[in-house]
């Protein structure tokens, strides 16, 4: 317990870095995910294939391999960035695929009748997308988006193994110097992760009940 | 337009779903202001025919002409033509993320480019006419099935369509709500709206139709006046059908 109290400032700094890593890679992944998902409903077959190949490929490579590649291999190829920035890139490349799928599932959950009603009223394709598909699709995507975000928070811990002093990396360093307090340090770390993930899961549940449309 | 020109003209329409021949050489003219009710057993192609009239279903062959204009296949002129043809679905299909009022206002504003303030006024009048004015600011899911279907009718009417298509508008409703929806449709017949109605409500067909079209196996088997159709149908298929439903 002393080890936790003495190193509280280290924990707070590491926790802040986890939050930052989550927000930066989360926001960029969501934007890329939305772009990829819009490829998947595009009339262009090329764009649909781009989405399918990207999602299929990236999701099937383990997260640790993604981060290993961006943090250790990219610098060998001449990319000069901090471990933190490289970790953001790795997480973004990986999670864009998952966010694309989250948006896609939301869009696919829109009933066919909604689209037919819009067509029957004479709405053009672009207006059907803007007025019906995106508003409903994005709302229906919120629960899978939050669940993907929770997965992302947990994956940031892998960056700790590869030299980023986020929460998990910080804990590893503290364990090195306080090997008698391993359990306390781990429990406190788990607690800090839970502060992020448990409310997110709870919100996902509420949103699912309040916002999602069943048609 | 000469007075005798049909509002809807369906000429030699064929529809294949893969190997399945769903519409077989369908020919049908509907005059302006006429109410045509389509009857027939399940799977006979009633919905398919109804949906080809605004091209929600494409045709394999034949022509469909609405108010002198052939149904186009490119999306932009098609959207323009669809704006003139109202459609009411079995499952209502109200936009679930919008309020009742927004549902009715959407197309006049987005398709016809009318001013929201004016559309709002008219939308509220339409909602009052179908008896759901007190639900204007609710989401469709908060309404009963009968109310939702009346909103769907108001939404279609807001476009001031030349033609209204109804595909089994009361089949998804609890029995006690069927009448409130049929009453709204019957009221429209009195206003000279050209209508094509697919239904299993024989009472409605008898009183509201100008003409009955009886379909079986993708073909129009019999065309008749309601009085004749229900008292002395010409074809054996129709006799058989009526003996089962009446
Ligand atoms: N998209 C489709 N793909 C393949 N077959 C279809 C499709 N839509 C309809 N069919 C078939 O075409 C036939 C006619 O269907 P349709 O829905 O027009 O019948 P209906 O007369 O409206 O019947 P019901 O009274 O049950 O609504 C049916 O046998 C149906 O299975
Ligand atoms: Mg049908």
Descriptive labels:
heterodimer; A: 215 residues; mainly alpha; 83% helix; B: 246 residues; alpha/beta; six-stranded mixed beta sheet; four-stranded antiparallel beta sheet; 9 helices; 10 strands; 37% helix; 24% strand; binds adenosine-5'-triphosphate; binds magnesium ion
Explain this structure.
The complex is a heterodimer of chains A (215) and B (246). Chain A is mostly helical. In chain A, 83% of the residues lie in helices and 0% in strands. Chain A is built from nine helices and no strands. In chain A, 38% of the residues are buried. Chain B has nine helices and ten strands. Chain B has helices spanning 46-52, 75-82, 100-110, 116-129, 145-157, 175-189, 202-208, 226-231, 236-245, and strands at 8-17, 20-30, 35-39, 61-66, 69-70, 85-88, 163-167, 194-198, 211-216, 219-224. In chain B, β9 (211-216) and β10 (219-224) form a beta hairpin. The longest helix of chain B is centred in the C-terminal third of the chain and has 15 residues, at 175-189. Residues 46-47, 168 of chain B line the site of magnesium ion. Adenosine-5'-triphosphate is lined by residues 17, 20, 22, 40, 42-48 of chain B.
Main sheet record of chain A = none
Biggest sheet of chain B, strands in spatial order? Answer: 6-7-8-3-9-10
CA radius of gyration of chain B: 18 Å
- What is the beta-strand fraction of chain B? 15-25%
Give a quick account of the main beta sheet of chain B: strands, pairing sense, barrel closure.
Answer: 6 strands, mixed
* Helix content range of chain B: 25-40%
Task: Output the structural class of chain B.
Answer: alpha/beta
- Overall residue-averaged pLDDT value of chain B: 94
What fraction, in percent, of the residue positions of chain A are helical? over 70%
Strand content of chain A: under 5%
Any ligands, ions or cofactors bound here, and which?
adenosine-5'-triphosphate, magnesium ion
Count the strands of chain B?
10
Mean pLDDT of chain A: 90
């Amino acid at each position: 317990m002393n080890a936790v109290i003495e190193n509280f400032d280290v924990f707070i700094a590491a926790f802040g870095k986890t939050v930052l890593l989550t927000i930066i890679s989360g926001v960029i992944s969501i934007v890329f995910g939305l772009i990829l998902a819009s490829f998947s409903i595009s009339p262009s077959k090329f764009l649909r294939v781009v989405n399918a190949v990207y999602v299929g490929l990236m999701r099937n490579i383990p997260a640790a391999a993604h981060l290993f590649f961006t943090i250790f291999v990219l610098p060998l190829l001449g990319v000069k960035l901090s471990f933190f920035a490289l970790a953001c890139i790795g997480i973004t490349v990986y999670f864009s695929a998952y966010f694309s799928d989250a948006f896609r599932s939301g869009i696919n959950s829109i009933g066919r009748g909604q689209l037919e009603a819009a067509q029957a009223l004479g709405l053009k394709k672009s207006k059907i997308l803007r007025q019906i598909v995106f508003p409903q699709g994005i709302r229906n995507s919120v629960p899978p988006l939050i669940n993907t975000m929770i997965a992302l928070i947990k994956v940031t811990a892998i960056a700790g193994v590869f030299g980023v002093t986020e929460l998990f990396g910080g804990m590893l360093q503290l364990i090195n110097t306080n090997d008698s307090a391993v359990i306390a340090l781990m429990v406190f770390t788990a607690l800090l992760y839970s502060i992020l993930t448990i409310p997110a899961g709870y919100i996902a549940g509420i949103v699912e009940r309040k916002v999602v449309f069943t048609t | 337009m000469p007075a005798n020109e049909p509002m809807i003209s369906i000429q030699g329409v064929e529809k294949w779903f893969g190997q399945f021949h769903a519409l077989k050489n369908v020919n049908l003219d509907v005059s302006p202001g006429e109410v045509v009710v389509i009857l027939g057993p399940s799977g006979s192609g009633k919905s398919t025919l109804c949906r080809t009239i605004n091209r929600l279903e494409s045709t394999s062959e034949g022509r469909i002409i609405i108010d002198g204009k052939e149904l186009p296949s490119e999306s932009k002129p098609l959207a323009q033509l669809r704006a003139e043809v109202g459609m009411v679905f079995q499952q209502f299909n109200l936009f679930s993320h919008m309020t009742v009022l927004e549902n009715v206002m959407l197309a006049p504003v987005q398709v016809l480019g009318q001013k929201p303030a004016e559309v709002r006024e008219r939308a509220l009048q339409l909602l009052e006419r179908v008896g759901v004015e007190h639900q204007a600011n609710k989401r469709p899911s908060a309404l009963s099935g009968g109310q939702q279907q009346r909103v769907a009718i108001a939404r279609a009417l807001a476009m001031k369509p030349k033609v209204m298509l109804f595909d089994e508008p009361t089949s998804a409703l609890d029995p006690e709500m069927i009448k409130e929806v049929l009453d709204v449709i019957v009221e429209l017949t009195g206003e000279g709206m050209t209508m094509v109605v697919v239904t299993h409500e024989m009472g409605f067909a008898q009183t509201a139709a100008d003409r009955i079209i009886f379909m079986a196996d993708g073909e129009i088997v019999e065309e008749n006046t309601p009085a004749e159709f229900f008292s002395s149908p010409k074809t054996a298929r129709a006799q058989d059908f009526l003996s089962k439903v009446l």
